[in-house]
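Progress against Task 2.4 (sequence-to-structure conversion) is shown through the following example record, which the project officer requested during the mid-term review.
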Amino acid sequence: MNAIDPLRKRELLLELRGIEFKLSPENLYQDGERPRAQAQKIEARLKAERAKIVKELGYEPTFKEIFGY
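Structure tokens generated for the chain above:
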């Protein structure tokens, strides 16, 4: 496993935090205002972005790492 630069790791964890917030149902569906098909496309894109970040990190970060608590 390659060690990742601490600053890059922090950036990636912050990106993951943003993605996790965007994936919450109230944000993803805009409190029921966004059509389901559109929300599903956005969800797929966000999950793909998340997967790339996890791959770059080399492991699945914990809730505490992502959110800081």
